[in-house]
Amino acid sequence: MTCTGDAPMKTATKVAEAAEMIPEGAVLLIGGFMAVGTPERMIDALVARGVGGFTIVANDTAMPGHGIGKLVSAGLVAKAVVSHIGLNPETQQKMISGEMEVDLVPQGTLVERIRAGGVGLGGVLTATGVGTPVEEGKQTVEIDGKTYLLEKPIRGDYALIAARQADYKGNLEYALTAHNFNPIMALAGATVIAEPHVIVPVGAIPPDAVKTPGVLVDHLLERGQ
Amino acid sequence: MTCTGDAPMKTATKVAEAAEMIPEGAVLLIGGFMAVGTPERMIDALVARGVGGFTIVANDTAMPGHGIGKLVSAGLVAKAVVSHIGLNPETQQKMISGEMEVDLVPQGTLVERIRAGGVGLGGVLTATGVGTPVEEGKQTVEIDGKTYLLEKPIRGDYALIAARQADYKGNLEYALTAHNFNPIMALAGATVIAEPHVIVPVGAIPPDAVKTPGVLVDHLLERGQ
Amino acid sequence: MNAKEIIARRVALEISDGMLVNLGIGLPSMVANYLPDDVDVFFQAENGVIGLGARPPEGMEDPDLTDAGGGFVTAVPGAASIDSAMSFGLIRGGHLDMTVLGGLQVDARGYLANWMVPGKMVPGMGGAMDLVAGANRVIVAMVHSAKGAPKIVPECTLPLTAARRIDLIVTEMAVIEPTDAGLVLREVGPGVTVEQVRSATAADLIVESDVSEMPVP
Amino acid sequence: MNAKEIIARRVALEISDGMLVNLGIGLPSMVANYLPDDVDVFFQAENGVIGLGARPPEGMEDPDLTDAGGGFVTAVPGAASIDSAMSFGLIRGGHLDMTVLGGLQVDARGYLANWMVPGKMVPGMGGAMDLVAGANRVIVAMVHSAKGAPKIVPECTLPLTAARRIDLIVTEMAVIEPTDAGLVLREVGPGVTVEQVRSATAADLIVESDVSEMPVP
């Protein structure tokens, strides 16, 4: 077999242009864990633009002034599907006042629901949450004598992810604890926008080091200042 | 936080000793795709030992004289749970003669079933196989108007996996198309025996390059001749 | 030009820039030979690589780099290694733009059977069921008849690969598109008449006025 | 020695060679300070590393390497980066030997509540529900009472973290093991009497003859 072709290069997208793509009310999957491995420039551009009403799906809402916390402070988040809001008192206040809807999901369930959305599975069967308030309103399935919750897949209109390094084809590498939800969210956004720290030529990331294949990435943000 | 300890070193296990651990009739998850990325020395040791009655779970039974094909030829396989046997006429003959039971599973379903077993999910909900003979005898679940098969998790008594490189802690790296089922099977064996091409000192595999954390690996085979 | 080359050349025209494509083993894998130079695509080998490349030079083969048929291949610059969970995650999750597969039978509903002949040949489905259930576009590339017996039939008698209507059938005699209304004849092969296609096809064909001759560049 | 130090030192004795251990944020994370030098374990930070190490030297912090509380950490030689799917795959899949978590309430069944106080504090469960449902051994490390109110109660009034019996409760006053028969008092804290434990505990305690004083090395 001869393969004459190969996949097209990405063009680097300016961060303000990337923000312009995202319509009011979009469902955004946003990588990061307490603002570590979060697409910070992308978030700043969304705050600068000021269009909101977003449903954000993320591990947490970080802290005021950091990562997703900036979207919350700017009032751009209508609903948050997250596992933890304990370090962001603004999220708690907005939830109590009814300004923001918050759907709390166990962390392992959240990442599997996003994975299920990304890899085409119909749902997740997990014992996590059985016998707790998480069970409310959900179908349970008995399998070989054990009870599991049927948790629905999650997909986003956009996945906004952070990466250590990208090549021109969009292949991504992540660093240490900045992996977190990013590689999984790259599977589950209808459009995937990646914010790498560094962009290197094709071939500079060996095939075995690629964690997210470039075919999943729609837009690469240009290198930061 | 101070961490004074760290995880213990593995001791390299001789391949014949590893084979001795495995009892007659064990369920073996065996990595590889048409004998690429298969623990070939481990298979040779099992053939040399001659104890069988195994249920093997693998992508395929390779070809006579290669990888899992050697276990089939030696008559050590009672049952094979695989996606493909097309290139091994001996498997087909033994299936037709009733000498070997063969359970054919779609490849994507097979790997997710093993993953579900390894990561503690109750099952896999997939549309693959709906309306085909694969559906027979299985529970179907309707989710948001679409039908999915409920496929059961798979775990093994032993996972026999091949890797490009290991460090003394059992951290593993894989190469190119020799990844295949190996990283997933490393999650789903009660005991995991890894056969690396190369064993390097701790620290020689950087954290971001590790595909299978050493905490999953019970035994490392000593380097081959 | 033999039948398989006609089919491979015609299927190659369905592939466009930027696609992620999976070619089945055998005839479908020939399609890669006929891609125009200016079409940039990534080929997936479901056994573990995105960015499958040509056969390596003699003596440069890597035993850890093969295609799904077990043949030695290369990886193009920018290729990515993937494990089987990621590989089938891409397939099932709607990330694969197109797959080209061989067929034993396709029926009037557009359903494909290509993985077993009960009592005769039981190779197993391998990745075929996931590919047909999951790929955005499924093209069946096959010779029109098997030893004189039509392979395009009213209803598959062999076990189905998926209860999903495939998108296009390409044979050396015809390009046929399964639709809600039935199988529509879109093109005839070089020098082939509509009547010849009809008589080699066991299923009904809808023939509209604009049936053209297959371009085979 | 203050209450938290007593608890952390006692929990450290539960950790043995070769374990994979997850320590919750706050009091549980103090346990790592009191491990004997000859115990070789790997700590998991569920946000993405196996082989969590001490705080880095001043000026050497990496913003991409923190623990689940967001504090800067290091990684020990032989550490592995993991994404959230792998991290919780390890937790749910039975690969985590032990987790040490804080608690708001534990009841006579051994059930834990530690993630919300309705109407007051709703931090969310984070990884706690997966940890309690999935870890092979769950130890609750907490002070015995909250502002004079017992935290060990007949039945949790706060929402449960999981309907799973946890394995051990360690407070500054007692080591208590939930069993089929109920909560068994195994040890009392330094200088604490059985009667003092009883009066600070709202749930019934089973007191066998061999209650010893907690070793706090």
UniProtKB/TrEMBL annotation, chains A, B:
Keyword Ribosomal protein: no
Name of the featured protein: Acetate CoA/acetoacetate CoA-transferase alpha subunit
Keywords: Transferase
Pfam families: CoA_trans
Species assigned in the record: Aliiruegeria haliotis
Record-level Gene Ontology MF annotations: CoA-transferase activity
InterPro entries referenced in this protein's UniProt entry, alphabetically: 3-oxoacid_CoA-transf_A, CoA_trans_fam_I, NagB/RpiA_transferase-like
The keyword Transferase is annotated on this UniProt entry: yes
From TrEMBL, chains C, D:
Biological source species: Aliiruegeria haliotis
Domain of life of the source: Bacteria
The family this protein is said to belong to: Belongs to the 3-oxoacid CoA-transferase subunit B family.
InterPro entries in the cross-refs: 3-oxoacid_CoA-transf_B, CoA_trans_fam_I, NagB/RpiA_transferase-like
UniProt xrefs under Pfam families: CoA_trans
Gene Ontology terms, MF aspect: CoA-transferase activity
Entry-linked SMART domains: CoA_trans
Protein name stated in the entry: Acetate CoA/acetoacetate CoA-transferase beta subunit
